[in-house]
Amino acid sequence: MGTPSIESAPSDHQVDMGREPKFIIKPKIHHSVVFDKYLGFHSIFLIIAGILQAIQGNVNGELSKTLGGGFAAWLSFCIGFVILLVYFLVESKGGTTIQWRTLFKQAPWWCWMGGLVGSMFVLLITLIIPYRGSAVTNGIPICVQLISSVIYDHFGILGLQTRRLSLLRLSGSLLMVGGILMVSLG
Q1: DSSP label at residue 24
Q2: pTM of the full predicted structure?
Q3: 121 burial class (0-12, 13-18, 19+ CB within 10 angstroms)?
C-alpha cells in the first residue's frame, strides 16, 4: 500500500462533506444551478460568518483608534489563536489524528499562505474602517472576493474544483459591483 496519504485518514466531517448528496433538486432557474441538501445548513453558518466578519472589522477599527492598527490586528489574532487552538485540539484529539510528516510532504506550498493572507486582510480592514465606515470597508473586499472567487472557480485555481463561468454567475458578480457602488457612493 505504501505510505498513508493525507486523504487516507479523513475526519468524520471531511468524509461527510465529500459524499455526493443523496438527492439533488434541479430548479427551473437554469440548468447549471444545483441545490444539494446541505446548502441551507451551510448557508446559515456562512451568514453567521458574514455577520461576525463585519463585527470583527468594527471592533478592531475602534480598538485601532486607541491603540493603533497593528496592535488591534495582533490582539485579534492572539485571541483567535486561543479559540482555534482549543477547537484544533478537540477536533484532532490533541493532534493525534494528524499525520504530520505526510502533511508536510504532500501539502502544496501555497497551503501555508493562509495565516499571511488572513493577517494582511485583518490589518487592512482594521486600518481603514475608522475612516471609511463599515459598509464601504467590508463591502469592497466582499465584492472583490466574489469576483476573485468566480475566477478561481472557473480556472480551478489553488486546487479548487472547476466551476465554469456562466451567464448567471457573471450577472450576479455584476449586480454585486453595482450594489457596492451604490453603497459606496450613497
Answers
A1: E
A2: 0.70
A3: middle
Note whether 73 and 122 are within 8 A (CB). yes
CA-closest candidate to residue 124, choices 162, 49, 172, 72: 72
- The phi-psi region of residue 6 (left if phi > 0; otherwise alpha if psi is between -120 and 50; otherwise beta) is alpha
CB atoms within 10 A of CB 128: 19
Give CA–CA dist 144/181, Å, rounded: 12
What cell does 122 get?
485583518
Question: Under a CB-based contact definition with an 8 Å cutoff, are residues 21 and 38 in contact?
Answer: yes
- Give the pLDDT confidence of 73-122 residue by residue, as tens digits: 999 999 999 999 999 999 988 888 888 888 888 888 888 888 899 899 99
What is the DSSP-derived secondary structure letter of residue 143?
A: H
DSSP helix/strand/coil, 186: coil
Do residues 142 and 186 touch, judged by C-beta distance below 8 A? Answer: no
How far, in Å, CA of 125 to CA of 60, rounded?
8
- Which residue carries 485583518 as its cell? 122
Go through 157-170 and write b for each residue having 16 or more CB atoms within 10 A of its CB, e for each that does not: eeeeeeeeeeeebe
